[in-house]
Amino acid sequence: MNMTNGLEQISKFTFHFSNMDTFFVDQSATIKLENSLTTFPEPLKPYFSGMIERLNLNDYESEYDVSFHSNSYRLNFISAKVTDDGKYIGSIVIGPYLLEEPTIFMIESIISDNKMAISLKNIMSQYYLTLPMISTYKANNTAEFLSYLVSTFHSYTFENLKIGALSYDFQTEHPVPFDLIKENTEQAMETIEKRYRMENEMLYAVESGNIELYNTIMTENQSTLNISHRIPNDPLRSIKNTGFVLNTLLRKAAEKGGVHPIYLHSLSTKFAVQIEKCISFQQTSELYRSMQLGYCDAVRKLSLKNYSSPIRKAIEYIRINLNQNLSLDSISGALNLSPYELSRQFKKETGKAITEFINNRRINEALYILENENISITDIAFMVGFNDVNYFTKVFKKIKGLTPSEYRKNKS
């Protein structure tokens, strides 16, 4: 047996059995084979890149052939050593996967524990939602399966495996009447035209962030939504393919609605991975509704369509760099704009001075994090860009009428 072919087959078996990313890492900690659905979003790569290569896969002092790994990002992996004549040649690695639901509290704790920028919270949350979440029982079963595959590595004879296909041709015994063909064609044309009208109306609703209009459109057009016939022998594949198209259309509609591409990229990537992982019609139906409402919600919360280009850029810069030292001079300098003109135009379009806008944004972000009682108020102040907890408390009370401690106590 060719060793490389054998490793490729084991990696493929593991990937399809576990439905999780699978890698073969050689003895020099280099990824040689990869079967994966998920990728790290670009803004997270400085934190996550090289994570698999840094796992302790060949610990000579360890008695384990199969190991569970976890890190401070709450990401988990399973590895199994592969040997050839008793010599370690590498490991099969499965992951990352989660053992708990990625709640917003969990994401905030990870950001706090790893000193990450709070502006990454949405991207982190969307990425974690693409990861498989399994029980400890399923993790143990997967580890046992992987152990079996690796232990019987040299027993496989893939070269001698013969796989063939049979095809059948069932002809219609009686010709179809012309009138019936004409009637079916006219019905099909009417259905297609209705579907395209509905699609345009739906995209307009998303572009406008109008969830109420969207719900009305979907309720009135339920009968036109079944497209599972497009691949008759694999209707689930039809639904998934349509989901990918829908994801693209919704992303473009939200972009027209004024949402910045950095948010749309992570959102569409999350949905693309979730589409491929669906295993039932019910899952796809629930996911597609979440997609449509998710893009509508993004337009409502993140759209900057009504602002001029300089102000859009300034607001995006503030959002992305919220935990940094922000001022009129630093923002205007980064965007190559006149401080005076930026200040005047910002107040005109938003109704707030830049400092007031930044403080409001930071306090609104802090409100969400304060619900997580595992993160101290001092840490929250630094996470949202305040270098002085006393100043954070002063600004918080000015905007909300309560100190952060009082707000947290009242919420509890």
Strand order of the biggest β-sheet: 2-1-5-4-3
Distance between the termini: 63 Å
Class from helix and strand fractions = alpha+beta
β content, as a range? 5-15%
Instruction: Count the beta strands.
Output: 5
Helix content: 55-70%
CATH architecture of the largest domain: 2-Layer Sandwich
What is the helix/strand order?
A: HEEHEEEHHHHHHHHHHHHHHH
- As for the CATH topology of the largest domain, it is Beta-Lactamase
Number of helices in the DSSP assignment: 17
Mean pLDDT: 82
General form: globular
What does the radius of gyration come to?
27 Å
Uncertain runs are: none
- CATH C-level label of the largest domain: Alpha Beta
**Tally of distinct domains:** 3
Q: Strand count, sense and closure of the main sheet?
A: 5 strands, antiparallel
